[in-house]
Write a structure and sequence with these properties.
This protein is of the alpha/beta class. The chain is built from 25 helices and 16 strands. Helix 17 packs across helix 18 (653-697). Heterodimer of SbcC and SbcD. Residues 429-476, 608-635 form a coiled coil.
Length: 985
């Protein structure tokens, strides 16, 4: 992967657009990104990370504030990165999500995140030449081309500030978490968890099967009616003993049930004989009692027969009498109908009620004919009524139309004056709106100046305070420098003694090469050790750093104060601000009326045109109404002259015709009712004669006697039933007594069924009890046999499961660092230990070079304290002492060397592990300030070797000495409202 160019707009501290040409910067393979602390050096690395993956390294990604606070509202935050990966050149463009002010109205709106990938040249196979615009597709494509995730890229390419120093001093658990992220060994943790879950599942299955077997043992014992074995020693022998006991109990129960069944059968036969004899005695007794009862009821039966015969002779008389009664009822109804028809005829105006039938018919025909003559005038009367209603409506509509015309004419006359006033108000409001933005800008400027004037005193105090701090830091740095030079000189004076203290018998002198040491130098008074010199140099560098910070702070305070004084050089803004506020309020109030006035003018224009159209339409409508009213009035007058003679004394023709029809109908109804009444009266007289003749013919002297002898159908049926039933009872009793098997039966015989029934019940109870015992024995035997078969099958299946669990349990302990795993290393720790060992080997090559052969990394797989897991130990071998020491004992500069070596080694291993693209660009962020000049030379030589093969290395630092060592650098300048970039060659 090689970077070509980076362009950031409104990103981080950069309010405008800044462009970095990596092709120019990396021409020599090594460049420096230099600038003050907080100026935005690391932001460029964040921009590279954001363009590639849509997020930035470390905790800065959690803040979610990538947009520059100093950028203009209309400037879009955007990062453009052009790079080459695996022989393909592409351009990435990303914009983060952020809140921006609305272009219209108040408040903010969300600017959505965007991303695009464009191929510069031929795209890889399977990709569209037009590129990608979906955020997820762009991210997946970048990860696929680089061969690593965002976290791996941050650790491999953007070597971060302090990250590897923490990794160097971390404990096993923290180091494991970082390595697991980089090498993606989560799958091995999944394997460990799979083994644990599988063992838990197998153990649950085993326990479940064991519990199932124990439940089957308990069920066998319960089915057999015995107690389960207390020592859980159930086996085939125990099952055999249980089955033998059940077979013996079943045979004994079967024999007892057989004997009880024979006794019950004998008692059943005795009971059957006793019941048959008792039934014959009962039947004889019942038949004799039935014959005696029939003889007693014989006189009553004769009375029933006589009543039935008399009632049957009276039937014709009853039928004829019923017809006469019906005619009497109909005659009364006809008389009532004649009276009602008479009243209706009188109401209809006909008073000659006593006239004969021919007169009544003539009068009805006359009335009907006169009503028919009026039928043809009904339609004229109906049309005349509608015409009058329409005429009334036309008169009312005409009055309304005249009022509408008058009103519209008045409105049309008043509109021009209203329109003129509204347009004048609109012009004033528009002019006020045009002045409003200028007044707001002037107010904002004056307000800002007022705030700046309040800060002027603070800025002066800040300059004084910064100057005092700077002087103190300069003094402290000078003292520390003098002390460091003194310490170095004293150590040089005692260097011979220091070298002599390291000589050993038989070993060559590192200075002269001789194995003989006849007179080693002795320590001089006040000799200084290496540790004291390192401490003095560190103190001097720290004070130098503090001095630089104090100087920069002082210069920044002076720059702020100067800028404030320049901006506040004009006159006092308090009075002008008050006037602007007053004018702004008046103008805003007037401008707020612009839209309402514009809408009013628009409405008045529209209303003027509408009123003109409405006035024309109203006049046309008024003329039409007047014409139609005149024509309809003439038609109504002519039709009324024809209808007045026809209606006579009635309100209209229809009412008169309805009266004529009603009178004709009343006369006709009177004729019909009178004729029906006379006909029914004649039929009633004839029917009464027929009833009297029927009574004489049936043998009754009077009609009343015949009606008294009559009976209804239910009574006749009941008489027939009682007579026949008594005959049937006597015949049935005689038939019973005539049966052969009852001939020798004495009805006075006594039979004791209770004793026989009691003996039978006892025998049945004994038989049922023995059969129940037998069934229970058979059921137990069957249940035990079935459960025993299941238990033996369960025992057979349990053996392989126990063996499988034992094997899985041992293997799970080994994979998770327990049991037979003597190193207490889990599978994941073992894999990470192997990767860490590769990292240690790769990092040692660089650490040894940068420390002049003194230090090298040592990987340890020993267990930690208190039995904690091992495999991730990382110590340092000090060649001066020949001893392995913890990395935490390294000094600040040594820690930086070790951290940088570890980062570079880890970068090589991760790149090789992921199989990713060749990493031609590498960034190292800060840490150089802890190095002395000699060590810095070694570090620079090592970094210079990284340029082999065309690799570009970018250093991010504020150390001044690096500016003299690297020919091309990129400088970040901090301005009042953001930062800017400057390429210095």
């Amino acid at each position: 992967m090689r970077l070509h160019s980076l362009e950031v707009t409104a990103f981080g501290p950069y309010p405008g657009t800044e462009v970095v040409d990596f092709d120019v910067l990396g021409a020599d393979g090594l460049f420096l990104l230099h600038g003050e602390t907080g100026a935005g050096k690391t932001t460029l690395l964040d921009a590279i990370a954001f363009a590639l993956f849509g997020k930035v390294p470390g905790v800065r990604n959690d803040a979610r504030r990538l947009r520059c606070d100093y950028a203009d509202n209309d400037t879009l935050t955007e990062v453009k990165l052009e790079l080459s990966v695996q022989g393909y050149r592409l351009r990435l463009v990303r914009s983060p999500e952020y809140e921006r002010p609305k272009r219209r109205g108040e408040g903010t709106t969300k600017q959505q995140a965007r991303a695009s990938l464009t191929w510069v040249g031929q795209p890889p196979g399977g990709y569209d030449r037009d590129g990608l615009i979906r955020i997820d597709e762009v991210s997946r494509t970048v990860e696929r081309l680089l061969g690593m995730s965002a976290e791996q890229f941050f650790q491999v390419v953007l070597l971060p500030q302090g990250e590897f120093a923490r990794f160097l001093r971390a404990d096993t658990q923290e180091r494991e978490q970082l390595l697991e992220k980089l090498f993606g060994t989560y799958r091995f943790a999944d394997v460990e968890r799979w083994f644990r879950d599988r063992r838990t599942e197998c153990f649950r299955d085993l326990e479940s099967r064991r519990a199932g077997a124990m439940r089957l043992v308990a069920r066998v014992a319960q089915a057999a009616g015995e107690e389960p074995p207390e020592d859980h020693s159930a086996d085939d022998e125990w099952l055999g003993v249980v089955a033998s006991r059940l077979r013996e109990a079943e045979d004994a129960a079967r024999e007892k049930a057989k004997q009880a069944g024979v006794a019950a059968a004998t008692a059943e036969q005795e009971m059957t004989k006793a019941r048959e004899l008792a039934d014959r005695v009962r039947r004889v007794r019942t038949a004799r009692a039935e014959l005696a009862e029939c003889e007693r009821l014989a006189p009553q039966q004769q009375a029933w027969i006589a009543e039935r015969a008399k009632a049957r002779r009276a039937v014709p008389v009853v039928v004829a009498n019923r017809g006469a009664g019906q005619l009497e009822v109909e005659l009364k109804h006809a008389e009532r109908a004649e009276e009602e028809a008479t009243v209706a005829a009188k109401k209809a105006g006909f008073h000659r009620i006593d006239a004969d039938e021919s007169s009544l018919r003539a009068e009805s025909a006359r009335l009907t004919e006169e009503a028919g003559g009026l039928a043809q005038l009904l339609e004229d009367a109906k049309q005349q009524k509608k015409a009058k209603l329409r005429l009334t409506k036309l008169i009312n509509d005409g009055w309304a139309a005249e009022e509408k015309v008058t009103s519209l004419e008045a409105d049309l006359v008043a509109l021009p004056e209203k329109l003129k006033v509204a347009r004048e108000q609109l012009v004033l409001a528009s002019e006020a709106a045009a002045r409003l933005d200028g007044l707001k800008a002037r107010k904002a400027e004056l307000t800002e100046r007022a705030k700046l004037r309040e800060r002027l005193g603070d800025a002066e105090e800040k300059v004084k305070s910064a100057e005092a701090v700077m002087r103190k830091a300069i003094d402290a740095h000078q003292q520390a420098r003098d002390h460091s030079l003194t310490i170095r000189a004293r150590r040089l004076d005692g260097m011979a003694a220091e070298l002599a203290s390291q000589l050993a018998v038989g070993e060559a002198c590192p200075v002269c090469g001789s194995a003989d040491h006849p007179e080693p130098a002795r320590p001089v008074p006040g000799a200084v050790s290496e540790a004291e010199e390192i401490a003095a140099v560190a103190t001097e560098q720290e004070s130098q750093s503090e001095r630089g910070k104090a100087e920069r702070a002082h210069q920044a305070a002076i720059a702020d104060l100067t800028a404030l004084q320049e901006r506040l050089a004009e006159s006092d803004e308090t009075a002008e601000l008050s006037e602007v506020d007053k004018l702004l309020a008046e103008t805003a109030a007037l401008a707020a009326n612009r839209e309402p006035q514009r809408e009013l003018v628009r409405d008045l224009d529209k209303r003027s045109a509408n009123i003109s159209d409405l006035l024309s339409a109203a006049k046309e409508e008024l003329a039409s109404l007047r014409t139609e009213r005149e024509q309809l009035g003439k038609t109504v007058e002519m039709r009324q002259k024809r209808l007045d003679p026809a209606r006579g004394e009635y309100s209209d023709v229809r009412v008169r015709r309805e009266h004529l029809l009603l009178s004709a109908a009343a006369v006709t109804e009177l004729l019909r009712a009178r004729g029906q009444r006379e006909q029914l009266k004649a039929r009633l007289t004839a029917q009464q004669t027929e009833v009297h003749e029927a009574a004489i013919a049936a043998g009754f002297t009077e009609v009343a006697h015949a009606l008294d002898a009559a009976r209804d159908e239910l009574r006749l049926a009941e008489l027939d039933r009682m007579t026949s039933e008594l005959d049937n009872r006597a015949a049935a009793a005689k038939a019973v007594l005539a049966e052969p098997d009852l001939a020798d039966i004495n009805p006075d015989s006594a039979i004791d069924l209770d004793n026989v029934a009691a003996a039978l019940a006892t025998a049945r109870e004994v038989a049922d009890a023995e059969v129940a015992v037998l069934r229970e024995s058979e059921r137990r035997s069957a249940d035990v046999r079935a459960l025993a078969a299941r238990l033996r099958a369960e025992w057979s299946a349990l053996g392989p499961i126990e063996s499988e669990y034992a094997e899985l349990n041992a293997l799970t302990d080994i994979v998770n660092g327990r049991g037979q795993n003597t190193r207490r290393m889990s599978l994941r720790s073992y894999v990470l230990a192997a990767r860490l060992e590769e990292v240690a080997v790769a990092a040692t090559a660089r650490l040894s070079r940068m420390s002049q052969g003194r230090y090298s990394f040592v990987h340890s797989d020993a267990r930690g304290s208190h039995g904690t897991r091992g495999g991730l130990g990382l110590d340092v071998l000090d060649d001066y002492s020949g001893k392995v020491r913890p990395a935490k004992t390294l000094s600040g500069g040594e820690s930086f060397l070790a951290s940088l070596s570890l980062a570079l080694g880890l970068a090589d291993v991760v790149a090789a592990e992921t199989g990713g693209a060749l990493l031609d660009t590498l960034f190292v962020d800060e840490g150089f300030g802890t190095l002395d000049p000699d060590t810095l030379d070694e570090v620079m030589d090592t970094l210079d070797e990284l340029r082999a093969g065309g690799r570009v290395v970018g250093l991010v630092s504020h150390v001044e000495e690096l500016r003299q060592r690297i020919p091309v650098r990129l400088r970040v300048r901090k301005a009042r409202a953001g930062s800017s970039l400057e390429v210095i060659a």
